């Protein structure tokens, strides 16, 4: 007999039970025990109460620790500011974000709740907040035919260092084409450079994918990185496998070489770290529209350099795969506690004290909410320019 059925039965007999004499009550209790399977003493206690009290629904489980009406507003805002990351990553990120959070309704009690809330509880709040993103797919511009030349492929060895990374500086690079639905003509491309050890990521936009432009971009990114660039792995695109980029990685004249390797053809997992960042750092920011206006490159690079990359590298935690084991037909993956790329670099034994101090000083100058607000303003200007350029082309 269900709980609701038991309540309805007791509500139906409670008035008769109170009016009955001692013998009648005894008979009714015997019948109620047989029907409800409850103990006689429990039924006596229940039937002493009023019909309204018995009918009232009692909440099950422990009492709620957090007030949803107060917390949902703050969690929704923080979740959107953090680019809708997962609950486990958001829980770690709150440590860096809350000191900068200014809201008239953000009381000490709310701060205490957010600090003590577990990732599982945070996930339950996010279920009612999260909105599924309907993302389309971009086009690949990596050649599958005879380009680049066999000569360049023979000069650049296949990647062999992926499983041996214990320090920053071993990076993967790829390009994302902002070509819309057609790869014909010229358009803007984004270059992504991701560190395997720390997930530190830098992006830059270039117009077309000419070898000299890619080399210049690598040169700028090398100076921007907070650690020494030791190795770069790329796919088989001709924008990477050319003499200009090869000479940059192998400068000669006594300068230190950069290990330059390539992935196997048709094996995207060889460059999986940067392939993931192509979506989270490029597509989620600029989408899949075609961008043919070269004047947009400068604004895109300002957004990447001054807002987006600092926000991701200093304030957005990421997971890192610790182990992967096959159990029967399943692959069991274990991840470490989420950390920001900056935190992973600060924990590394291979960065000098000076490099770590520079990172700490740079982080002190940054405010995640300010970065997010100013970036949204720049993005608004950017997409307005994209719209205007398309209107002129249509006219």
Helical run tally = 16
- Supply the CATH superfamily name of the largest domain: Ribonuclease H-like superfamily/Ribonuclease H
What name is given to the CATH topology of the largest domain? Nucleotidyltransferase, domain 5
Question: Can you tell me the number of structural domains?
Answer: 3
Provide the low-confidence segments as ranges. Answer: none
Structural class: alpha/beta
- Helical content (DSSP H or I, runs of 4+): 40-55%
Taken in chain order, the helices and strands follow as HHHHHHHHHEEEHEHEHHEEHHH
Distance between the termini: 73 Å
Summarize the model shown:
With 395 residues, this protein is an alpha/beta fold. Helix content is 50%, strand content 11%. It folds into three domains: 3-55; 68-127; 150-394, Nucleotidyltransferase, domain 5.
């Amino acid at each position: 007999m269900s709980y609701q059925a038991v309540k309805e039965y007791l509500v139906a007999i409670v008035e008769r039970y109170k009016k009955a004499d001692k013998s009648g009550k005894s008979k009714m209790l015997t019948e109620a025990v047989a029907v409800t399977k409850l103990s006689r003493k429990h039924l006596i206690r229940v039937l002493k109460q009023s019909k309204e009290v018995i009918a009232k629904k009692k909440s099950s489980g422990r009492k709620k620790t957090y007030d949803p009406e107060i917390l949902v507003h703050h969690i929704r805002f923080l979740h959107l500011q953090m680019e809708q990351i997962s609950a486990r990553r958001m829980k770690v990120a709150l440590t860096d974000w809350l000191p900068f959070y200014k809201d008239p309704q953000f009381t000490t009690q709310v701060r205490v709740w957010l600090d003590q809330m577990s990732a599982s509880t945070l996930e339950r709040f996010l279920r009612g907040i999260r909105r599924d993103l309907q993302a389309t797919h971009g086009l690949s511009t990596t050649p599958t035919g005879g380009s680049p030349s066999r000569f360049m492929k023979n000069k650049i060895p296949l990647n062999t260092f992926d499983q041996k990374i214990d320090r920053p500086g071993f990076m993967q690079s790829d390009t994302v084409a902002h070509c819309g639905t057609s790869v014909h003509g010229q358009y803007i491309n984004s270059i992504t450079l991701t560190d395997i050890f720390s997930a530190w990521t830098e992006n830059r936009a270039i117009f077309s994918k000419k070898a000299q432009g890619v080399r210049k971009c690598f040169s700028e990114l090398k100076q921007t990185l907070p650690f020494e660039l030791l190795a770069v792995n790329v796919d088989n695109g001709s924008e990477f496998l050319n003499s200009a980029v090869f000479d940059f990685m192998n400068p000669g004249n006594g300068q230190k070489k950069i290990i330059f390797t390539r992935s196997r053809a048709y094996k995207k997992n060889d460059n999986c770290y940067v392939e993931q960042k192509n979506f989270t750092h490029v597509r989620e920011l600029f989408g899949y529209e075609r961008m043919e206006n070269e004047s947009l490159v400068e604004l895109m690079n300002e957004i990447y350099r001054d807002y987006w990359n600092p926000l991701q590298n200093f304030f957005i935690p990421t997971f890192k795969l610790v182990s992967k084991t096959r159990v029967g037909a399943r692959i069991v993956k274990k991840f470490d506690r989420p950390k920001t790329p900056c935190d992973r670099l600060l924990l590394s034994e291979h960065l000098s004290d000076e490099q770590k101090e520079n990172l700490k000083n740079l982080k002190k100058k940054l405010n995640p909410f300010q970065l997010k607000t100013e970036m949204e303003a720049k993005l608004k200007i950017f997409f307005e320019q994209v719209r205007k350029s398309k209107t002129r082309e249509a006219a």
